[in-house]
Amino acid sequence: MFLGVTATVTNWDAEGTSCSLVLEDNPLVDFVELPDTCQGLSYCNILSGVIRGALEMVSMKTEITWVRDMLQGDDAYELRVKLLKQVPEEYPYKDDD
After folding, report:
1. How far apart are CA 43 and CA 72, in angstroms?
2. Cβ atoms of residues 72 and 33 within 8 Å
3. A GO CC term (predicted)?
4. Between the CA of residue 55 and those of 25, 39, 44, 72, 91, what are the distances in Å?
């Protein structure tokens, strides 16, 4: 939302715990070209951390991996999101009864 990126959610698994996010645009790479010596670099990996951190804020432990990256020569940007576990909410204070 803050980057102005729209994502399409696709490829749900049978359990409903894993899906793919296909990004229509990625403003982080507007003026980026990876040289041949850096083709193994995951330049957009910060987006994985942003998504993982946001999901942890709503009590979801996830694993985020890049499936396709246009900087690597693919036709789209695609992230795979896998839910590892739903963490029960913990309150830092004790409620008064």
Report:
1. 10
2. no
3. endoplasmic reticulum
4. 21, 29, 18, 26, 18
16-19 own/partner pairs: CB under 8 Å, 24+ apart:
17/82, 17/83, 18/80, 18/81, 18/82, 18/83, 19/80, 19/81
What pTM, to 2 d.p., does this model score? 0.76
Write out the DSSP string of 17-75: SEEEEEES--GGGTT----GGGTT--TTHHHHHHHHHHHHHTTEEEEEEEEE-GGGT-S
Q: Is 4 helix (H, G, I), strand (E, B) or coil?
A: coil
Residue 37 lies in a domain: no
List pLDDT tens digits, range 73-84: 778 889 999 999
Is the residue at 91 inside a domain?
no
Q: Where does the pLDDT of residue 90 fall: very low under 50, low under 70, confident under 90, or very high at 90 and above?
A: confident
